[in-house]
Amino acid sequence: MNQKIAVSIVYVSAMFMAIMDITIVNVTLPKLASQFGVSPAHIDGVVVGFLVSLAIFIPASGWLGDRFGMRRMLLLAIVIFTGASALCGLSQSLTQLVIFRILQGVGGGMLTPIGMALLYRTFPPAERVRAARILIVPTAFAPALGPVLGGLLVTDVSWRWVFFVNLPIGLAALVFGFLFLQESREPDAGRFDVGGFLLAGAGLPALMYALSEGPARGWTSPLIVATGLGGLALLSALVRYELRVDTPMIDLRLIGNRMFRTATVVLFITMAAFLGSLYVVALFFQDGLGLTALNAGLSTFPEALGVMVGVQVATRLYPYVGPRRLMVAGLTGVAVLALAMTGVGFATSLWVPRIIMFFLGYSIAHVFSPVQAAAFATISPAATGRGSTLFNTARQVGSALGVAMLTTVMSAVGVVHVVHGHPRPHLAAFHWAFAAAAVVALVAARFALTVVDADAAPTMVKRTRKADRERRADADLVTAVD
Asked: Do the domain assignments include residue 314?
């Protein structure tokens, strides 16, 4: 089988499963707290344990793929994630569930960087826009589907199916990958960077924990201050250490590549604005407007439809206008639409935020598609694994930072206030969070203005007669992935 098709199918299936799992579990947290007889404040280990484990194994994934083979490690990651999902669904106590979620994070931490590296090694720079069309499916579609599916499963079936739903997807991806994927390995992966792994494996989880728990525990909590400052200190030591070793686990020298550096910074800030906004939207619909989890998910889902439309437009414009204009326009759109959410109130028709969500997805597609196509334009195949590790570390930390920052804004304003002696949702708290997300999106747009389109030239290939002959292959690829 054509490896472009094989890699695309396995990557999209695995990543869709992993990313959807994050949002689908968030919807289930109140039910889990009730099921295990604990307060909602004590159920956060289900999320934090996963995020911490994810942060430990993302840095090691690039070297593992180079050393033992991308195919082998990707399939192993799918096995771990799918098996842990089954164990989560069978959990009989909260302690068991947290342990199995940590195991899930081991598989999830390897899935994203290894899958992306394999995809970019399969698609040459001239075809990276096609790859971006594939990448956008799990990145933007899964977060919108998760709340809908989670609401249905929790309401009508059982919380256990929130985890069991991963099994058919994971098993199908595993069997297909075993049969059709070819191995990709770097002949000289170098020695395992023990020092880098220890520093990253301690610093990133500490920082992720502080960002995840800071809004709930308070930023002045001794535990949050200790883990936050400790994480930053360890990461500072990691930077100094990695710049001195010959084969670093996180190759910070890639930051010297102008296109990769700028794209990674734009992605980092964009994820803070976008994922932070989606998190606030879910809370706004449920805690603010009083919708059920299912109705909130259905009201968020138009974002996914907007992405599907937007990616078709963005990938066709990319060779002609370049990544800079697309990213700036997309991020400006995100900022305007986040501000539009500040006008949504109790008397507003639900179709207004649904339309806003559609165009939010349309706008973000004009950011994700070009940034993912252009980021690796001038990165060598040998460095793709390490570059993917760094790129996805920025993605993960940016997401956590965005959620922490916007949650802090809501907490500062207060999500509940007293009206005529009765507590009522305070929509101003959500509105200020949306305004903060708009500011973050504009900051990302400012950095996107520094993109030099010439650096992405290898990926900006206009259609020629030769390219026209590949249209059928492109159509077959998209059809197979869909």
From this structure: yes
